[in-house]
Amino acid sequence: MQSKESRLTRRAVLAGSGALAIGGGLAAVLGAGGRTPVGASTTAGRRVLKTGTTSAPLVGEASQIPVWGYNGSVPGPALRLGQGEAFEVLLENALEEKTTIHWHGVRVPNAMDGVPHLTQPPVEPGERFRYAFTPEDAGTFWYHPHQRSFEQVGRGLYGPLIIEEADPPQVDRDLVWMLDDWRLNDQGQISGGFGSRHDAMMAGRIGNTITINGKPAAPLIARPNERIRLRLVNAANARIFGLDFGELDPMVVALDGQPVEPHRLSAPLLLGPAMRADLIVDFDYPAGTRHSLRDVFYDGLEYELTTFECQGKEVRERRLPDPAPLPPNALAEPELATAERHRIIFGGGMMGMTGRTASGSDARNEQRTGSGMMMERMGGSGMMSGGMMGWTVNGVSASGHVHDPIISAARGTTLLLDMTNETAWWHPIHLHGHSFRVLSRNGQPTQYREWQDTVLMAPEERVEIAFVADNPGDWMFHCHILEHQAAGMMATIQVN
């Protein structure tokens, strides 16, 4: 777990957003009870996801705010299916711009990965696209566009994808919380300026309004000795959550959808954008007990996200035994002795403004004037203005989703990536099509050697990851702070 000293400061955050409200841009609004449900669940039959404009109660039911959503809701429908079950979704695009769907964390065939121009043509307004695959892994995943994602995700286009184990753990409830933040203006509407240079070169578009499942955070009401599986998904463009559960003491059983040795938290749970965690929460407390869940990541901006409250009659006389490990997914174990080693350097931002675009063009040619300095080229990538270079991977600032791969590996090769963050900012680094072992941080072995698809790197941190390149295709490898991705912090890893 990264230390508090390397967290973003209050000044850095306030440079990009207004004051924080919990589910309300003008005032904190907390629900009176119950839980905040995710979008309507779809478990069987023909699935259709239709993009379009809708509204959501981001600051409470009395105030519906225009957003973009799937099937008229934010988040979109919770798609649930069994491990190894054939999956098919028809995307209908009712937006006035192109879109795609990326199945984040799922090891899909390359043609189903949803990256515009790289794995598929973007879906035009009024057009459709069929996604079909059979997921190999059980776990907590999610879906979102990869076309102009800094705005499309930022306006609400995302939803959970839950692939259930054949033998799931014993729990009383299985809940999904999609955490997000929104930047609202003084009128309580979503602020414009998506893709601004300021956001892109600093911490990203950090909002001022926090929601759980598209609504203000309501207390989670549980009965004494109830056990809840809580699936957390960070759907924010840029906000990092540092979740302090206080005395509640949940058990972590999976990270990024992949089982991990069950363990209790010794520090706040850090969730960068796109990261997930599965927790087993036991409410072995008497009725009337209240616990606070606080977000403590940003120094000077700590706040209470929500509360957990015990009410009613006990579910059972005593708490259940600690959960057993979840069944592992069939991931090939990296062969470190024969691994092909590669150095990866992340640079750029508001420091180290040197480099070139992936196409070799001068950075100034990537400028687009007008409101927000929008990152338009090739689906919203490679923006630069004022003669400044964006973010880089090995000295290259990517322009668009299609460029020469930084690594080309034969199928079955173990790749060990020795990654260094040479910037002053945090970066959640995501690899498509694979999960990887997190081996070490700053030369120290990780305690659990966890499988992840998105690893959070602190400023100046060095992280080693390893995986077997066994999924053929050209795979995106990028920062999941969406403004950083669009401003050049992306690359391609090719598996032949």
Describe this structure in words.
The chain is mostly beta strands and 496 residues long. It folds into two domains: 4-310, Immunoglobulin-like (Sandwich), CATH 2.60.40; 336-495, Cupredoxins -  blue copper proteins (Immunoglobulin-like), CATH 2.60.40. The protein has helices spanning 10-14, 149-152, 197-201, 377-380, 482-486; strands at 41-42, 47-56, 65-70, 78-82, 87-93, 102-104, 128-133, 139-144, 159-164, 173-182, 209-212, 220-222, 226-234, 241-244, 251-255, 258-264, 269-271, 276-283, 290-295, 303-310, 340-347, 356-357, 392-393, 396-397, 407-409, 413-421, 427-431, 436-441, 444-445, 451-452, 454-457, 462-469, 473-479, 490-495. Strands 21, 23, 26, 28, 29, 30 and 32 form a seven-stranded mixed sheet that branches. A six-stranded mixed sheet has the order 11-10-13-18-15-16, with no helix packed on it. It has a five-stranded mixed sheet with strand order 1-4-9-8-6, with no helix packed on it.
How many domains, as an integer?
A: 2
Radius of gyration using CA atoms only: 21 Å
Enumerate how many helices there are, as a single number.
5
For this structure, what is the CATH class of the largest domain? Answer: Mainly Beta
Shape: globular
Question: What is the CATH superfamily classification of the largest domain?
Answer: Cupredoxins -  blue copper proteins
